[in-house]
Design goal:
Order of helices and strands: HHHEEHEHEHHEHHEHEHHHEHHEEEE
Shape: globular
Helix content: 40-55%
Distance between the termini: 31 Å
Strand content: 5-15%
Number of strands: 12
CATH topology: TIM Barrel
Strand order of the largest sheet: 8-1-9-10-11-12
Number of domains: 1
């Protein structure tokens, strides 16, 4: 048993984890309410090590937001604009392809594409940019659209959710994003995102996608008006769906950003709260393989610390991020691959480049990234500027 747990009130939770017994909602709440951060961290880190050993991953990717025009007015959102607003934007298919072309030159393996619920873009626009991106590079993994975007597209195209997803997949969609989950509790959801899809609708889009044989991620927005019990209930519903479908590849807790929105919340969640959230998520979500510390919302330094609290992934290089930065995030717009590797090494973990589905591509050995699967181009690729990492 970890030394931090020997005299802790949470020592019985270690015993549960050690024999593979599932934590209850009450156990998760105890972890969140505990003032013993060392013990909470030890539980999260123990659960992480049992899942993934000493590896920590990152992805070389690029974010593209095709438009910030949106028919909704979510109270927490600083990203969306109406057509009358002067700072709204909408990318053409050619502009999306050009951004992708530039990013491919940097070695990306994934495009992460989301946007607002545009009032009048036709369904064909979304199919067209997916097809164009696959023509640009068929190997490029396209992780696109939140559940609410899928619902919106189904409504615009007058199609069922399954038919909408089928057509998107045929055009090139590889994975759904996990955004839009916010907090599932209906009262909280109404306060922060009135008019958005319900928890049941969010989960059903992912259920349908999973039952089509596909994978996705999921999220939770924490640190605003929700209670700890609401967070536990959110995790429970995700764990239940994962029991049913097994289709989630990773969970990404997202810290609330307080600026430029309509919520009367002036502060971000504290570092302690963020680290506890990582640890509780790792210990409770026993049927999830991976927990991501989202450096854009946490900052890279805190994300590094999260690697010893249950997280095993730092997300991606990103290149250009709008949603969190328009809400006040002060983190950089991008991280280089060398920066990601250095952060992971400094945290005492073995850096692994992954793909969209958290499958390993290359692992650091010495100062070289070594392909982990045969057939990947380049047998040994030197990582520059790591001598002082």
């Amino acid at each position: 048993m970890h030394v931090a747990l020997r005299q802790s009130e949470l020592h019985d939770l270690y015993d549960k984890l050690a024999i593979g017994e599932r934590l209850t909602e009450g156990d998760a709440l105890r972890m969140w309410k505990s003032t013993d951060l060392h013990a909470v961290a030890a539980l999260g880190d123990f659960a992480r090590e049992r899942k993934v050993g000493n590896r920590a991953s990152y992805i070389v990717n690029r974010y593209i937001n095709y438009s910030n025009y949106c028919i909704l007015s979510c109270q927490f959102c600083a990203f969306s604009r109406k057509k009358r607003d002067s700072d709204g934007f909408q990318l053409s298919v050619d502009e999306i392809v050009q951004k992708a072309r530039e990013a491919l030159a940097l070695g990306i393996t994934e495009l992460h594409i989301v946007g607002g619920l545009h009032p009048n873009l036709p369904f064909e626009y979304y199919l067209e940019f997916l097809r164009a991106l696959k023509v640009l590079d068929p190997r490029l993994q396209l992780k696109c659209f939140t559940a609410i975007e899928v619902l919106h597209l189904a409504w615009m195209a007058r199609l069922s959710i399954e038919e909408t997803l089928t057509r998107l997949q045929a055009a090139g969609l590889n994975s759904l994003t996990g955004g839009g989950a916010e907090i599932f509790e209906s009262g909280v959801r109404s306060r922060i995102a009135k008019g958005k899809e319900s928890a049941a609708e969010y989960l059903n889009v992912h259920r349908i996608w999973h039952k089509m044989g596909n994978r996705s991620t999921c999220t939770m927005l924490f640190g605003h008006v929700e209670a700890l019990e609401d967070r536990v209930d959110h995790l429970r519903q995700l764990r239940d769906l994962q029991d049913e479908t097994g289709g989630f590849v990773g969970f990404v807790p997202l810290p609330y950003q307080p600026e430029n929105n309509q919520l009367d919340i002036s502060h971000k969640p504290t570092g302690v709260d963020a680290l506890k959230t990582i640890a509780v998520s790792r210990a409770y979500l026993d049927n999830f393989e991976h927990i991501t510390a989202y450096w854009v919302g946490l900052g890279m330094k805190l994300a590094q610390v999260a690697l010893s609290h249950g997280a095993d992934d730092l997300h991606g290089t990103i290149i250009e991020e709008h949603i969190f930065h328009m809400a006040g995030a002060s983190s950089p717009q991008l991280q280089t691959e060398a920066d990601m590797i250095s952060a992971i090494r400094e945290a005492g973990r073995v850096p692994v480049q992954r793909d969209t589905f958290y499958q390993p591509i290359r692992e650091l050995s010495g100062d070289c990234l070594v392909p982990m699967e045969p057939g990947i181009s380049g047998s040994r690729l030197l990582v520059n500027n790591l001598a002082t990492a």
